[in-house]
Amino acid sequence: MQYDLIIVGGGAAGFFTAINVAENNPKLKIAILERGKEVLSKVRVSGGGRCNVTHAEFIPNELTKNYPRGEKELKGPFHTFMTGDTMEWFDNRGVALKIEEDGRIFPVSDSSQTIIDCFLKEAKRLQIEILKSHAVKNFSKEEDSWILKTNQGDFSTKKLMIATGSNPKIWNLLENLNHTIVEAVPSLFTFNIKDSRIKDLPGVATNASVKVRNSKLSSEGPLLITHWGMSGPAILKLSAWGAIELNAFDYNFEIEVNWLQFYKAQEIVSELKELKDANAKQQVHKYAQFELPKRLWQSLVAASGINNDTRWADVNKFQLKTLSEQLTQSIFQVKGKSTFKEEFVTAGGVDLKEVNFKTFESKKYQNLYFAGEVLNIDAITGGFNFQNAWTGAYIAAQAITSK
Predict the structure, then answer these.
(1) Which of 38, 180, 212, 279, CA to CA, is 20 to 30 A from 330?
(2) 69 Cβ neighbours under 8 A, 6+ residues apart
(3) pLDDT tens-digit profile of 237-264?
(4) Pick the CATH number of 2-186+343-400 from 3.90.1150.10, 3.30.70.1170, 3.30.565.10, 3.50.50.60
(5) What is the dihedral of CA 18, 36, 90, 104, to 10 degrees?
(6) Residue 12 forms beta bridges with which residues?
């Protein structure tokens, strides 16, 4: 079958491209090829089922700082289409969005189905064909057309958009076309840690700074203790920025956690001495200090060799020193990783040097476009990966319909 545009991948970037192209030129014949039985499945599970559409950062150069890979390349595109444009796009289609305290932006409905329904409604209105269970086996350039071979027949198209996310099979096909593929490694994950200090503390959260020992990797922010180890923004940022290095460590490394964020052990020793003088008769473990969660404080006190019935007056110098180190230099052994919720983000994909970021077109082939995580672009959690998808899809759509 002959089309003007075929989009491989029935996800966020694919639908966003198709809708924008069809609105720019309703006469074009457009098809979305999806290998599975469902479209927009990643949208459905994103943001815990709420769909974190984007993030409330409205300055392009600041927005790019949330991309460990792609920061430089996205500066230009974000000046063309970014957060405010995304919000307006959805608003124009009847989807009300809200900004939460941490900057994440969700549909007012708190349901990813709202976003899915919007895309499906628009696709139907614009007569975009959605072909499910169409797995692409190969594609090649023949004169001025792209020929795609699928498990359900062959297709021909003038222009081709690849929006398949982290799909190794598609990456292999692109390698066959002499595109360079940067090896994929996990980019957004939590740390598996078995340690008596946090064993009984699942659900405890506090602000902390974290650094990977024997490296330059560090992060700070909310840290969440889980049944399997540690999560939260501080850990997730570390996993994103350290994706390649932590993969090289085979996810077996040590982290140093400062539960007081910016204090040093020496500074805390003097404060602990003041607490000792002011609360001589009080049991150390009974009242949490430094605004730490009580259970975390008690665990760190115990790890310092201080018993539950020990009063401040009876704490010796060695115990004070040990407690200060537990508070500011807790060492934990990380052994493995876990996927963050149901979201799976990878670093890796089409080498960014081979893409024209004014159009999101391949530099090697005319009329071959990319959007979303098929490129070697990834971000920290908070709606940034979706914003990359919207931006790339929008700019590609403008380029597709301008020539």
Answers:
(1) 279
(2) 347, 352, 376, 377, 378
(3) 999 999 999 999 999 999 999 999 988 8
(4) 3.50.50.60
(5) -130
(6) none
- Can you tell me the distance from the alpha carbon of 349 to that of 240, in angstroms, rounded to the nearest whole number? 15
Strand partners, 161: 7, 369
Which ranges in the chain are annotated with CATH 3.50.50.60? Answer: 2-186+343-400
pLDDT-based confidence at residue 312 (cuts at 50, 70, 90): very high
| CA distances from residue 88 to 29, 205, 304, 401 in whole angstroms, order as listed | 26, 35, 54, 21
Helix then strand count (H, E) for the chain reads 13, 21
Q: What pLDDT, on a 0 to 100 scale, did the predictor assign at position 403?
A: 76
Main-chain phi, psi angles of 189, to 5 degrees: -150, 165
3-class DSSP state of 23: helix
Q: What Cα–Cα distance (Å) separates residue 105 from each residue in 10, 134, 382?
A: 22, 33, 8
Query: What's the mean pLDDT in 164-193?
Result: 96
Contacts of 182 (CB under 8 A, 6+ apart): 347, 348, 349, 350, 351, 376
User: What pLDDT is recorded for position 344?
Assistant: 66
Indicate yes or no: pTM above 0.85: yes
